[in-house]
Amino acid sequence: MADQKRKNQEVILQQFNKLRQEQRMVAQKISELKLEESEHKLVIDALKDVNDPTRKCYQLVGGVLMERTVGQVQPNLENNASKINSLISTMDKTLETKAKELVDFKEKHGIKVRGEDTMEDKSKSNSPAPASTGVLVN
Prior knowledge:
By secondary structure, this protein is mainly alpha-helical. 70% of the residues lie in helices and 9% in strands. It has helices spanning 2-48, 70-109, 116-124; strands at residues 56-61, 64-69. It has a two-stranded antiparallel ribbon. Helix 1 (2-48) packs antiparallel against helix 2 (70-109). The protein starts with a helix and ends in a 14-residue tail after the last helix. Mean pLDDT is 86; it is low at 132-138.
């Protein structure tokens, strides 16, 4: 009986860790996409200052440096930036869904994570934090 209960707890813990890992992966992908979006915006802003659409520019495509014109590259960059932005908003919704799944799973199985309970206790108590009594010595 106790052995069955332990196995059941291990299965629940594995499912919980899987959900946490999925949430982390989505958050990591969002941060990668935000970085890529900021790089696209940086290049788009730099190309807006160029008045000549026939001016040469270089674009890295799949590890190959391609020579193109500003007129060819700029619309592609703007299109990619808008697609990245929409993908980020979709991934944000996915992250919210994963977070809700995780909270529901924790509540359903009574899982408590070390460190979270002390943070919740601190936020629930309205007592002010103790004043810092640090000393600076030269």
